[in-house]
Amino acid sequence: MQANVEGFSGTPALSKFEGGQSNPTFRVSSENGEYVLRRKPAGPVLSSAHAVDREFKVLTAMKTAGIPVPKVHALCTDESVIDSMFYIMDFVPGRVFWDPRLPELTKSERAGIFDSMNETIARIHRLDPDEIGLEDFGRKEDYLKRQISRWTRQYEAARIGENDNMERLIEWLPEHLPDEHPARVVHGDYRLDNVLIHPSEPRVIAVLDWELSTIGNPIADFAYHLMTWRFAPDLFRGLAGTDFAATGIPDETEYAQKYLQRVGLKAPDNWKFYLVLSMFRIASILQGIAKRAVEGTAADERAKDVGAQAGPISKVAWRLAKNL
User: Fold this and answer.
1) pTM value?
2) What's the mean pLDDT in 50-69?
3) Are 101 and 229 in contact (CB under 8 A)?
4) What does the CA dihedral 174, 179, 181, 183 come to, rounded to 10 degrees?
5) In the Cβ-directed half-sphere of 83, how many Cα atoms lie within 13 Å?
6) Which of 222, 320, 238, 235 is nearest to 280 (CA)?
């Protein structure tokens, strides 16, 4: 850090952040400031997963484009330093909320946070990747087809038991592909617990966890965010069953319409396909967590319980798919 982080001095002290099932993340404290170290997990990982070098690149571009993200300082690709690739970024003081119902906040605060999340993802999706140095960050064609292929492979590589719903989805998804939308930067895992909220104001001050970001279909990226409205709170931090009028949280239709207005896109005729694909993706991701729990390489001690949600989520996805 003394050699690669401008202004750093002293002896760093590290403490691990709680939560998160992807890349282990640490707070780095020193005499002259606070930083964050985000590393690839030690040991074998699934192909193309945990790409902290891609995170570093997209964070650099997002900062330049005015998107609220932490400033990144240095990427270390020499795995001999701490046994895996890592990067250093600024520590941003803020609040992390895990329950999207935000029970501890007021009605107006809930409304403000959801509106800020909506506005932020719309700003990301309005960016032209060619204009911000990300022209080579991913292929621009056949995003949906490639997503199905990728998450099918990831699921199969992480399979540790039978899941008939996932097998049905693997057959169903390629048969129902819609037309593509213009290619944009997509976050890949945009949800409440992957953004930092201002310490006292109801607004997003930093978007985190860009591990799955690439060039792709903005509607698919937004649908992944929107599936929160489809899950029960005890399944995957969902909003199903919420009294939206009473809480100040927008319902699914209102939230989607506001996004489309801000990003300048028309509503697709097949929203539900994108929701099914999103659920298939998260089930595949959770299956990877379950696999790492079995192998003992998971980033969090709760990985076994988190990974077990792949089954119930794939059941919800197939129930939605078969009724289309």
Assistant:
1) 0.89
2) 94
3) no
4) 50
5) 5
6) 320
